[in-house]
């Protein structure tokens, strides 16, 4: 959480939306991979971004409608983000099966590595017991630069981060290391700030003054070993029907930086 992230006004929102129109990339599309435990709010985050960009409710990535249970997203799905005029933004989100503590549950680390390298095609259904092999129809032996991941975003829920299984954290760390080897930039989006602090639940503008949120950001940083200024606290749209500029600005601030990280990386890699 950087010190520049101080206010949540409507003019900030318009300014960031303008910035997004100017994201410059040598590639046709930037690919953002969302990684996290089941129920962290990955699908909700994708939906929320689309809602903010469209300025209205959107039905895109399916959310889990009940808490807990096994990972709802079992396949790999690419979500294009649409502009108001119908065109698409030059970036996509990649939503995959969640991480689970259990060895026999959730996505395998080998599969996530393959996703980072652009080797798994859209629609592939993960098998928690066996990773993909080169013989699979959905295995891409020669990925295009657009199919590789350009930013890894870990999604962590603020309300339950302290109780998260060490096994899931360990898996996330291993994947972060793999991404670091590939020089892929990384960020954390910390969801569910409304559930972590009552003050923030009542008034989202209090987010930068909340001790509880500060504490949770620190826990995220310690657990994953990522610096405080790459952690973005957000509240996802999950039950609201109307848009709220305060919700929008937090999501846009995270999105702007993520896209800048991704485009810097892609522009550097593909000269
Ligand atoms: N209160 C609150 N609930 C959220 C937030 N983000 C997600 N949720 C809820 O958390 C649950 C899991 O979200 P989902 O996006 O399906 O998680 P995924 O498994 O990571 O894709 C759903 O019931 C959402 O409504 C948030 O920021 N605040
Ligand atoms: Mg999901």
Describe the structure.
This protein is α/β, with parallel strands linked by helices and 271 residues long. It has a single domain, classed as 3-Layer(aba) Sandwich (Rossmann fold), CATH 3.40.50. It is 36% helix and 13% strand. The chain has 8 helices and 6 strands; from the N terminus they run αβαββαβαβαααβα. The protein has helices at residues 10-21, 42-54, 109-116, 166-181, 193-196, 198-202, 211-224, 245-269; strands spanning 30-35, 77-82, 88-95, 151-157, 186-191, 231-233. Strands 2-3-1-4-5-6 form a 6-stranded mixed β-sheet, sandwiched between helices. A hairpin with a 5-residue loop joins β2 (77-82) and β3. α2 (42-54) packs across α8 (245-269). Residues 63-71 have low confidence and may be disordered. It binds guanosine-5'-diphosphate and magnesium ion.
Features:
271 residues; Rossmann fold; 6 strands; binds magnesium ion; six-stranded mixed beta sheet; 36% helix; alpha/beta; binds guanosine-5'-diphosphate
Q: What's a concise summary of this model?
A:
The chain has 271 residues and is an alpha/beta fold. It has a single domain (10-22, 40-269), classed as P-loop containing nucleotide triphosphate hydrolases (Rossmann fold, 3-Layer(aba) Sandwich). The chain is built from eight helices and six strands.
